[in-house]
Specification:
mainly alpha, 10 helices, about 80% helix, globular
Length: about 280
């Protein structure tokens, strides 16, 4: 069977990605990343819910969206944290608590930076404060991304109706707006991942060089979350087997798979960059 140049590139990419997956020990890195995410997720939720309280979106509406994409047992844990924060004193958010929550939540992004440096075969040469600053900026950006996605999903119909009236469009544009409303969170996530893969590692790459990994991670995040939620809610028996800690175990497993997706996106970008350089030298 004749193998074309395009087929050869695809085969080389798959091989390189496979070897990178093993050489960089992605499962072990994902375990470390999931551990840091576990430590960071609750401070992040505190920060996120307090930000949401400043928008038209209610915590109940945000919880409804979350319930559709994460397992029920894990959702119950997150719901407890969100409910507690929602009824607590808002003044603490405007003081030390806000800073502490952002700092603690940025530990997760700090772990992402280290993991992506590993994927790109880079040693960290930037100062500690610069790396921490990047992690904090990424944490805040990610929080606003989630809030914007919530607003589009929850208030999108109202926004669309007002936009159509303001621009003078007919109701025939409503299906198009509905499509935009549900695609927008994925597009926003792609942009966030592109920024993450572009600026977080200690290596500068063009946006075109990180686009493939960004698309992979964004779509992979949503698909993995939905499939995992369907499996756990319908086919697994974690709640009966592990009792009250079943939700925590499921949350850890979910974060582990999300970590693998994030790292694979970085590895994909690195593999594409390596193969692009190899073929440019080979074929001039």
């Amino acid at each position: 069977m004749h193998i074309t140049k395009k087929d050869s590139r695809i085969i080389d990419l798959v091989k390189d990605l496979y070897f990178r997956f093993n050489d960089d020990d992605v499962p072990a890195l994902a375990s470390q990343l999931a551990y840091y995410f576990i430590l960071a997720i609750f401070p992040f939720l505190i920060f996120l819910i307090n930000l949401i309280s400043l928008t038209p979106v209610t915590s109940e509406q945000a919880l409804y969206i979350l319930s559709k994409v994460i397992p029920t047992a894990a959702y119950d844990i997150i719901k407890g944290v969100i409910s507690h924060v929602s009824y607590s004193n808002r003044q603490t958010f405007l003081s030390f608590s806000m800073v502490a929550s952002i700092w603690a939540a940025s530990n997760g992004m700090n772990a992402v930076i280290k993991s992506l440096n590993k994927a790109y075969d880079q040693h960290e040469s930037r100062s500690l404060w610069k790396v921490r600053g990047l992690a904090i900026i990424a944490t805040i950006a990610f929080a606003f991304t989630i809030i914007l996605s919530f607003i589009l999903l929850i208030l999108g119909e109202i926004i669309g109706r007002n936009v159509l009236v303001f621009l003078g469009f007919s109701s025939s544009f409503k299906p198009l707006w509905s499509l935009i409303r549900f695609i927008s969170p994925v597009v926003i996530m792609i942009i966030v991942f592109a920024l993450l893969y572009r600026y977080m590692p200690n290596k500068r790459m063009k946006y075109t060089e990180v686009l493939a990994g960004s698309i992979f991670s964004s779509i992979g995040w949503f698909i993995t979350s939905i499939l995992f939620s369907i499996y756990v809610n319908n086919f697994s028996n974690y709640a009966n087997t592990y009792g009250s800690i079943g939700g925590i175990i499921l949350l850890i497993i979910w974060l582990y798979w999300i970590s693998i997706i994030i790292l694979l996106g970085g590895e994909l970008n690195a593999s594409l960059a390596y193969n692009r350089q190899k073929y440019s030298k080979k074929f001039g």
